[in-house]
Each structure stands twice: as structure tokens, then as C-alpha cells.
Amino acid sequence: MVLGIKIIPQNNLGLIETLGKYGRSVESGLQFYIPIIQKVRKVSLAMRPLSLPNYSIITKDNADVSASVTLNYHVTDGVKYQYENTDSVESMAQLVRGHLRDIIGRMDLNEALGSTAKINQELAMAIGDLTNTYGINVDRINIDELTPSKAIQEAMDKQLTADRERVATIAKAEGEAKSIELTTKAKNDALMTMARAEADATKTRADAERYRIDTVQSGLANADTKYFQNQSINAFADLAKSSANLVVVPTDDASEFGKLPVVGKLLDKGLKQF
């Protein structure tokens, strides 16, 4: 009997068919088979990437979004993968699309756009182990892109612009109000400071005047007749220097003029009127 030789590469599984019917599985390495009667199929067990093109999904609030998914899978059961499904990979892809539509279809647009990590987790749990069905296991799945339709993007851009303008307007108004408040407070503080300074100055002048009056009165109370007589002489001297032709004074006691410190000024004002 003539035998054929078949080499099964590393990380591959050999499926031997006899007259078109699956007979047995062989591991990688050198394998023998009967030509014409038998055929050896190779099934790769290595991990493979798969990209699912963009497809439309409708959210709970009837928004149209486009999803792009990538995943990695590997064959776990060569017999189921090869013989029990016409196209196990396409069947798996359809299952992924169906579960993704179901998950996103239960979400609003904003929730879906902000929950890609949650969607990935729910999708991985929904798919689970596909060994018993397709002889495949999905090792990793990820939503690369979740994009709203062009019309929705334009509406979202307008809404975002309006929100930014509203925030900017509010911030500007608050800034102007704060500026007015600070300016008004500064003016009020300045007025209060000036008022306090003026009050303090008035009080100081009043205290000084009171002290001067008290000092003069105290001095007058202790002054003797000689002081007042001297004041009287000075007063008459000032009268003599004036331009008046006639001055009438009492003759009882001329020293009484000395008791009036302002008599000179009063007489001077009176003389200027003539």
C-alpha cells in the first residue's frame, strides 16, 4: 500500500477524511494517510484578528449610530469549526452584531457614547464561549468607534456651541457684577476712611481749641492786677497809633481793659469802619 506523507505545522490541527467523511484528528508533525481515499485538512489553532465593518445601530432614543468592532478569536474545536457550520467565522460575526444591537438599543445616545467600556464588557459576557456552537472562542472584543450620523453630529455641535456661549455669557456677566461690587466697595471704603479722617481732624482741632481756651482761662484766673494794667497800657498804646480823632473810655478804672484780651482787635475793627 502506498502511503502519503503530510506535515501538520505547529499550532495546527489535522483532520483526516476517508472518502469525504471525517475520520480522526491528528496533532502537528509528520502524518501518514492513504492517497486518493483519504484527505488531510489543516485547521489553524492560532489567534486571529477580525474587523467588523461599520454598520448602523438605532439607540433607545431613535438615534442612528455607526459601530466599528474588532475582535480576536481562535479555534477551540476543529471538528465543529470545519464540519458543523458552513462559515463559523461569519456566524460568529453575525452573533456579535446582534448582541451589540441589543445592548446599544437599550441605551440613549449620550449613554451609549459615554459607555464604550461598559458595552465591551456586556458584549463579551453575552457572547461567552462559542466552542459548543461554532468551535470558536472570542478572546478579546472592542468597540473601536461609535459615531452618530452626520445630522446628529451637526445638531450636537450646535448644542455644544450654544452651551459654550451660554457659559461664556454667564461668566462674563458674573465677572462684570463682581467688578462693580468691588469698585463700589472700594469707593465706599474710601468715603468712610475720608469721613473718619475728617472726624478725627475735627475732634483734634476741637480738643486743641478747648485746651487753648482752658489754658488762657487758667492763666487769667491766676493773673494779678499788674498783668491787667500792662494789658491796659498796651491797649491804649494801640489806640494812640490809630487814626481815630476821638476815643471815649471810662475813667473809673482803666485797668479793666486788660481783662479783655480781644479789646485791641475789636477796637481795630471799629476804627477801620470810620
3D structure, described in words:
- The chain is an alpha+beta fold.
- Helices cover 53% and strands 25% of the residues.
- It contains eight helices and nine strands.
- Strands 6-7-9-8 form a four-stranded antiparallel β-sheet. Strands 3-2-5 form a three-stranded antiparallel β-sheet.
- β2 (12-18) and β3 form a beta hairpin.
- The longest helix is centred in the C-terminal third of the chain and has 73 residues, at 150-222.
- Residues 259-267 and 269-274 have low confidence and may be disordered.
Tell me the fraction of residues in β-strands, as a range: 15-25%
Tally the beta strands.
Answer: 9
Q: Gap between N and C termini, in Å?
A: 167 Å
The secondary structure category is alpha+beta
Write a concise synopsis of the structure shown.
This protein is an alpha+beta fold and 274 residues long.
